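Escalation from tier 1.

The customer reports that the assembly of three entities below gives different structure tokens on two consecutive runs. Tier 1 could not reproduce it. I'm attaching the input and our single run for tier 2 to review.
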Amino acid sequence: MSILTFLDYAGVALFAATGGLAASRKQLDFVGFLFFAATTGIGGGTLRDLVLGGGPVFWVKDPTYLIICFMVGIFVFFTGHRVEWRYRLLVWLDAVGLAAYCVMGAAKGLAATGSPTIAIVTGTMTAAFGGILRDLIANEPSILLRPEIYVTAAMAGAAVFTGATLGELPLWLSSSLGMAAAFGLRGGAIHYGWMLPRFHSRPGRPTEEAMKGKSRRKG
Amino acid sequence: MSILTFLDYAGVALFAATGGLAASRKQLDFVGFLFFAATTGIGGGTLRDLVLGGGPVFWVKDPTYLIICFMVGIFVFFTGHRVEWRYRLLVWLDAVGLAAYCVMGAAKGLAATGSPTIAIVTGTMTAAFGGILRDLIANEPSILLRPEIYVTAAMAGAAVFTGATLGELPLWLSSSLGMAAAFGLRGGAIHYGWMLPRFHSRPGRPTEEAMKGKSRRKG
Amino acid sequence: MSILTFLDYAGVALFAATGGLAASRKQLDFVGFLFFAATTGIGGGTLRDLVLGGGPVFWVKDPTYLIICFMVGIFVFFTGHRVEWRYRLLVWLDAVGLAAYCVMGAAKGLAATGSPTIAIVTGTMTAAFGGILRDLIANEPSILLRPEIYVTAAMAGAAVFTGATLGELPLWLSSSLGMAAAFGLRGGAIHYGWMLPRFHSRPGRPTEEAMKGKSRRKG
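Tier 1 run:
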């Protein structure tokens, strides 16, 4: 379990750092940094533990996770404003955290249920929810509605890890493959603007207009 | 239990379809469709299971629900843009899903606690939360703040089902009555613009202004 | 436990009242008042119970809490529009609710885990989450992004209560000290505009611009 424990702490610390950088962009006060660091750092894992059931969530059982978030929040409070390329840093740390957390989430889901479907979903959810929550409470446009690959990278990493684990590869190898898949896809999305094709798209009209008549040509 | 199981699958599939249609309006990519379909399809039931306690949520115990969401998401990905009246379809499917889910949620709450108050609340919550979550993550104006009957329809359906069940009507009849109440009210709201009276209303001032003095006439 | 039970009911009722006042500002209908009163009244405690694990949340075990929320919502429906200084009232009731709920949340967290870190976090979370949720669903600017002291007051109250309890002060005294700390800080923030220092701040650029080059001077 030591690789997974390391990934867990690393994922929490990296997402906490992105939360602190978001707080820095919003010019929040000291407690605002702690709040954003903790919410982003433990948000995804909290949702994962809640849906899997089985008692208190991970940071209630082991407050070390919270203390990591707070220390990271304090560090970013004193240093974040000095980083000229703060938003780029946030985005890249988020990519590494995403890679660590999708493997960790899939491992927990697979251990708890044995179902590969659940493992992929808990991996994706653990990795993606922290960033979604950070954007939501920071009132930034959600990563979900941007065209770049994000949830896809988390899902790919979780799927690769789950497949490799079911194929009985050793843990260090399946973890590395899962992380490489997630980080490779997300990094390509950040650097080259990779996105999935959208099939045939057609934008939605404003809700008011869309409820009015005159458009029922088919049906 | 077979009527309730059918309603559960139907509610999940219908809400998943509305999530896919929302993704289509937002021109998301393939994984975006899966994400919106799953979040909308299982969101309400997940919240219900969390507050009732008792271990893993329903889709962790039975991944069929997830697979339904994904299949519906894939179907809408390939067909949603072709529907000229996409938003009307979203709204009407949501109404049928609301009717199925308020009965299902009330039945689970009543079975778990025996309390009619809890049954009505879990029914309302199960039915309304998926749509609220969909609007929130799609960044659409929330149905909660629109004047139409929505939460009211869910509450009415849950209350009718709970009352009929306590009155020892057979399950098929109490389910039908509950669904008819919810769908009737919501359908009337969509088609005729039904809304509840608002008593004496007075709009709120912007928060900044409201904190300034000059208005303390009473008190 | 009677002091804590009283604080629990009081916190629920006060936050329910602020939810009702938010519904009044948004000119919602009757069911909208019930929904906002219940969501704001029980939101923080629900999150606390979920992360602590241990079965159904408090209002499922004891529906009295829901009934209090509904009665408060009905009362505000008939009276809220008559209050000229409705938003000021909302803010001050929220401050009293915050004080009651940070003590109650810390007491539950401490009883469940024995960890002071967890107690401070559950206290802060219980007190702050109801208001955050209310602002989110009412589509108001979140209190989190305003410069005033808010989360800080909840955290201070939870910390004072936890410290006093570990120092073996009697319950009535540690509760009073915790509430006084939270209400004093929050009240000062409302009345005098108290805020924490922000160290060296620098606003974030819009996300689009921040991803473009030309700014990588250090690194």
